[in-house]
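[agent] plan:
  1. take the single chain provided in the ticket
  2. run structure prediction with default settings
  3. attach structure tokens to the ticket
  4. add a short note for the reviewer (M.T.)
[agent] executing step 1
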Amino acid sequence: MTQPERFEDPDHPDWVCELYGNIYGLKQGARVWYECLDTVLRTHGMARTEADQALWLKILVFLLAHVDDILIVGNKNETTSVKAHLSSAFKFKDLGDAHHFLGLVITRDRKNRRLYIDQAPYIREILDEFKMENCIPVSIPMDPKKTWEERPDDISLSPKAIKVYQCAIGKLMYLMLAIRPDLAFSVIKLAQFASALSV
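[agent] step 2 finished; step 3 output follows
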């Protein structure tokens, strides 16, 4: 670690500066931000859930945080109150109604009081990345009766190919967890071989 440019101390060139606050991008930055957000939300009466540490609840309002993206859902009066409380503690930009969040496309049908989520752009991105944009759709992704076994002698993939396979599995897992539970069997079955490839 060196002293910042133009702030060098000529008498003590080996000394370093002590930080009194947090800087975005430091190793502990995310933890400090999370603790700060949690404190502010608790002072407004919101409680963090045990199931998901990034989800806070209060009657008629839910707040979901991912790094510095926040989604607030609920009763209009309560969401306005939460936003006002957050604006008293942080400088932030209100983007209005949510249309995208973490790769999810959010569509609202206010007339029928329905909310739809999908990941069509993310799915297209996966298909393009792995050169499968012209693949033939099937109703069942994998035959559940087929037996799979590890045969290390058959595996002769390069380290780069192994990474591509593991990357594909990771992307499919995110898709499966978000909106496609029907892919669970296939993705989990294929994921069992991801570690065998790296042996």
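[agent] step 4 note for reviewer: Strands lie at 47-48, 55-58, 61-66, 69-74, 100-101, 104-109, 114-118.
[agent] ticket updated
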